[in-house]
Amino acid sequence: MGRAFVYVILGGGVAAGYAALEFVKKGVSYGELCIISDEPVAPYERPALSKGFLLPEAAARLPSFHTCVGANEERLTPKWYKEHGIELVLGTGVKSADVKRKTLLTTTGETISYKFLIVATGARALKLEEFGVSGSDAENVCYLRDIADANRLVDVIQSCPEGNAVVIGGGYIGMECAASLVINKINVTMVFPEEHCMARLFTTKIANYYEEYYKSRGVNFVKGTVMSSFDFDSNGKVTAVNLRDGSTLSVDMVVVGIGIRPNTGLFEGQLTLEKGGIKVNGMLQSSNSSVYAIGDVAAFPVKAFGETRRLEHVDSARKSAKHVVAAIMEPDKTGEFDYLPFFYSRIFTLSWQFYGDNVGEVIYYGDMSGSAFGAYWVSKGHLVGAFLEGGNREEYEAIAKVTRLRPAIEDLTELERQGLMYAVTVSQKPAALPPVEVRASDLLLEKPLYAWHATAGVIIAASIAAFAYFYGKKRRRW
Ligand code: FAD
Ligand code: NAD
């Protein structure tokens, strides 16, 4: 038994949904595109699972968060795929791939062949067993990667009202789930090996802000240690978490978020891998010219950093999906993927965004005892990363723009003094202008190629005036 398609997307997550929409926008013909997913539902916005999905009231449920609502685009229900002649093969895994023959073999025994394959298999959650601890299959131990996990987590939360939870891991899943558990009136202790939460991205100072906020909401932190074993009752439920530092925490439930591994297994030995993912070029094309990779599984060249990276965030999944469709359907009109890394999170009433890279010296701005603050990262004389908590839309756009511009920074003290205003000012200047340098005395042009000094002066003066007004009104201390 077999079917043939021009385009096959392997995986039915975020990247698959955004790629499908782009295929339709670019005029894919009826019957040309097939999506194969081992999940039983059409592509959805995975970030909802640790946020809206876990709310005790008015929780998000499908079909409300099918892709592509997360980017304010159309919501692609199963009906949409049908109407556009896209074959959605759900609840079906691919168990082997043969890139020479251009075929995939599914768990139902069907062989599906393609002209172009887009690998969008995402990643799987790491299990405790991979760290030498057993007990992951206990009914009150939860992971969170897909909708089945999320449904299970909701059941476990509801089974222990006002109970005690231990959250293992201080990364994205740990932080977002801990917040959701607190909102569900569960008492939370977070356990992780690092000195502070979100160690991959946050500095100690930034982490401290969030940890203090979490503590104010009743969360306990046990840092610098890992769990060594579980205690179970006679029904096999976990009753306690034993830590390597010798302490024991009584629990009603456990949530584990200790990182992921990209789903590359089908292609090992067939495609070049790098950074744990499938290595692709600027057109998102792998070492086999008929096979492309996007989303969490793809290791792609990040132009701004001059190196290959694999990102694990929804914005890169969405944008790489859009780009790959253009690269396949309109190769002559499509340039290389030029992506500025963007991460965000929303926890309790807090909300932050980060753009670029977190390397080099860190310059903080704003009021870390208030509701809004941020940081810049400066490496080799250029601003390469920016973080902002509690900003508004214009301010987030400003830090995104300034990071993309990578302006030369000569004086870190002056950058610190200007704070967010620096991003706002630089982002407001006309796009064609060269990067602005910050000096001790004033804002100066690096290379005054254009006669725009007067305009710049007006913009800066206006910005400062606007800022002064804004400052006075909002009482923010940038
Ligand atoms: P996925 O969305 O994981 O999709 C992969 C799909 O492939 C899945 O459907 C999987 O079942 C399927 N698949 C895998 N192997 C096979 C196979 N052999 N056969 C068939 N199907 C297969 N990022 C943010 O930037 N902000 C957030 O707030 C945020 N929140 C998150 C919350 C949660 C709970 C999780 C788990 C992730 C979150 N992320 C967030 C990360 C973001 O969701 C991922 O980066 C994004 O989903 C990656 O998209 P993808 O399509 O590459 O992979
Ligand atoms: P992560 O990489 O963000 O964090 C993993 C954490 O595991 C580390 O911070 C560390 O504290 C902990 N850890 C590692 N080994 C451990 C051990 N032996 N014992 C205890 N803790 C240990 O991964 P995650 O939090 O599991 O998130 C999974 C994926 O989901 C990631 O790809 C992440 O980017 C994505 N995600 C992203 C967002 C977002 O962007 N807002 C939200 C949720 C999930």
Automatic annotation (TrEMBL):
Residues 340-423 form the Monodehydroascorbate reductase 3-like C-terminal domain. The chain crosses the membrane at residues 449-472. Its EC number is 1.6.5.4. Residues 7-321 form the FAD/NAD(P)-binding domain. Pfam families: MDHAR3-like_C (PF21791), Pyr_redox_2 (PF07992). Keywords: FAD, Flavoprotein, Membrane, NAD, Oxidoreductase, Redox-active center, Transmembrane, Transmembrane helix. InterPro entries: FAD-oxidoreductase/Apoptosis (IPR050446), FAD/NAD-bd_sf (IPR036188), FAD/NAD-binding_dom (IPR023753), FAD/NAD-linked_Rdtase_dimer_sf (IPR016156), MDHAR3-like_C (IPR048618). This is monodehydroascorbate reductase (NADH). It comes from Phaseolus coccineus (Scarlet runner bean).
